[in-house]
Every structure is written in structure tokens, then in C-alpha cells.
Specification:
The structure is a homodimer. In chain A, helix 5 packs parallel to helix 8 and helix 6 (about 105-110) crosses helix 7. The N and C termini of chain A lie far apart (about 65 Å). Chain A has one domain: Tetracycline Repressor, domain 2, CATH 1.10.357.10. The longest helix of chain A has 28 residues, at about 120-145. Chain A is built from nine helices and no strands. By secondary structure, chain A is mostly helical. Chain A is about 70% helix and about 0% strand. The interface between A and B is large, with 50 and 50 residues. Chain A binds a DNA duplex through helix 3.
Chain lengths: ~190, ~190
Amino acid sequence: MARPREFDEHQALTAAMQVFWEKGYEATSLSDLTSAMGIQRPSLYSTFGDKESLFQAALSLYAERSLAFIQKKLESAPSAKAAVLLYLQGVVSSADGHRPELGCLCVNTMVELAPHHQGFTQFTRVYQQQITELIQSILEKGKQSGELSETLYAPALASAIVISAVGLAVTMKSNPDITLVEQAVQQIILLLD
Amino acid sequence: MARPREFDEHQALTAAMQVFWEKGYEATSLSDLTSAMGIQRPSLYSTFGDKESLFQAALSLYAERSLAFIQKKLESAPSAKAAVLLYLQGVVSSADGHRPELGCLCVNTMVELAPHHQGFTQFTRVYQQQITELIQSILEKGKQSGELSETLYAPALASAIVISAVGLAVTMKSNPDITLVEQAVQQIILLLD
DNA sequence: TTAGTTTTGTACTGAACAGTACATAATGGT
DNA sequence: ACCATTATGTACTGTTCAGTACAAAACTAA
């Protein structure tokens, strides 16, 4: 009973996510957003609210996709060690259309916005905690199957692995020596032995 | 033979560095800078050039201080393992007036500016390489003294340690569970065994 | 066809931004 | 004492920013 929307909301949000991912929050202008999303300014405001609300929605979408992707990848691995290796390599590699030089939107947000905005502080912390729980669960399974030592303390090790992954995501933004980064990944998974 | 400068250049640059460290590049306005530095706009421009030049100078100052501080700390340690532990704990702890929630200015720059500005890409990469070399050198000494295994591959391990430190610096910006972070540090130094 | 409703496109708003012109003030050299 | 030179403080520039007013357009229900 009214004029129908001419754009797909989910598709537009995905485009916004991509722009924020590439440029960061502050450096992204509303003109950047509207042109990438293919919509006009009033449509953006009526659908997503202001810039910060849109960013929050884009970040949530990113986190949701990222967590699902990581979980699937972890579960596809034949062993705990292989799972962790796949996870860390996924941060570094260009497979799946992933662009390592963009880092991770949640990590980028942790750096740019978390210190000055409590909402993002919590959101990004929870995101990291959730990934840590996924890794921890993989480690527990590895212990149960006998693959990993029973003396291994899964919470701390999972935390160390995810912290390393955060470091990897950031390091990839400075165009590093890939060989050295891959060797570092090999070192980190030695923690599972 | 002219009116003398009424402010200390080094002190003003330190103040600018602090503001950029706290707020990031984009979110820092020239008014933020002039008020923190205690100088007027034309003095800033005549002394430091434009905003980007000032940031570059502040970043260089930070890197210089940071490298010197880390080197001193590493050399003060009684063993390689103690040195690496001191290094990682230094990223996490609030000692020395350090505020872990600000992270590291070079790491922050890697996230915010490196992807879109080649100069900063290179600068931050070199910074990380330099710290990696310091750690590598500590590891080599540890091997020579017999503290560390001779089979240990110092370049990759040093890289892994610094990447982990980058992850720690970022993680500290999301107000994490400190106990868990410290446990993660304990895991990382297990790589030296 | 028409009334009611929501979206769209254009064009605007005031505020904040980085950077600068210019007059005044403060020094050292002569 | 006075001039050349450099720093300072004020006030301004044009531009870009996030956000919005408004009218035209596109639809449904009756």
C-alpha cells in the first residue's frame, strides 16, 4: 500500500560493510556509503538510521558471517591441530576471495573505536571471546580424542591462539614478508604439541 | 635576530604524539592538537607542516622511544626467556605510566593508515621488523648460552612473538579479562622451551 | 480513478574541518 | 633608537561533513 523499496536491504548492508572494512569508520563518508550501496541519502537514513547505526549493523553482519565461516572451517578439519592451522592460515591467506590486507573488521574496530565507545568495546571483546570459545572447544575435543596432551590448559591456549590471530590480521595490513608470517604461523601451532 | 619561539618543539611534538595515540589520526582535529600542544595554528604549520607531516614526526618519535625502551628492557633481563616475558608483559601491564588500553601507536597506525598510504605501510612494517630483530637477537644469545635449544629457529620464533605482541596490544583496547590475557602470555613463552 | 502512504531524488542546512592572510608583538644586529 | 626578521594571535577562507526538508514519484486499497 505504498511505494515499494527499490533496493535490497541486505545487499546494501553488505556493500556498506565492505566500505567500512576497507576505509574504517571515520574515513568513510556518507557519500562513499551511498555510492557503494547504490542508494540515496534519505533512503539510507530511513532504513539504517545514522552513520553509527549503519556501522553497528554492518559490524554485526560481519561478526555473524565471520563466526559462521570460522566455525564451519574448524569443523571441516580432520584434527584439532589441522583446525587451528586452517584458522590461522585463513587470516593470512588470499583464498576464498579474502583480502588479508584489509585485516578483520572487528579487529579494525577494536583499534579505531573501542577505546572511545563502550558499545564497540563490548561488542569487539565478545566477538573475540566467541572465537576463543570455538578454538577452546576444538582443543577440548583434541584432548578427548587423545590427539592433544591432557595437561594442556585449553582456555589459556585458545586465548593465546586468538590473540596471535589478531596480531596476524593486523600484521597483514603492513604488506609483510609472507614467508616469515607463514613461518610464524608454524611456530604458533607448535603450542599444541 | 628575530622573535624567539615561545614553546619547546620537542615538548609540543610529544603532546601531539599523545593526542594521536589516544584518538587516532582521522579523529584528531587541528584544534585538538593546538590545544594539547599549547600553541597556535600558524605556529604548528610553520614548525611541523601540515597534519600529516606532524603525524609522521609524532610517529617517528614514538617509534624511536619505543624501540629504545624495548631494547633497554630486553637487555636488562637475566635470560632470554625472562626478556621475552618482560617484553610481552610490558605490552599488557600498566607499569611505567603505560596505558595498555591505548595500544601501540605504530600498531594503531598499521590498522588505520597503512592500507591507504604507502609511506605508513612501510614505516610500520619496518618498525615491526626492527622489534623482531631485537627479539631474534635475544633468542640467538639464548641459544649460544645454552639456555635455549639449538634446534630453535630464531627468525620464525621472533616473528611469532612479535605478532603475538601486536595481538596483545590490540586486545588490550577492548577491555579484556586481564587474567586470561596473562595466561595467554604464559602460553606464548612456552614456545621458548 | 482517486486517496493515502511510503520511497526516491534534489537540494539544502549549519557545523566542523584543514589550511592561511594579516596585523601585531618580540627579539637581535647595527 | 631603529630596522629586519621571525613568532604569535585573530580571524578568515573554501571545502567537506552528517543530517534533513520537500516535492515528485510509485505503489495499494478502495
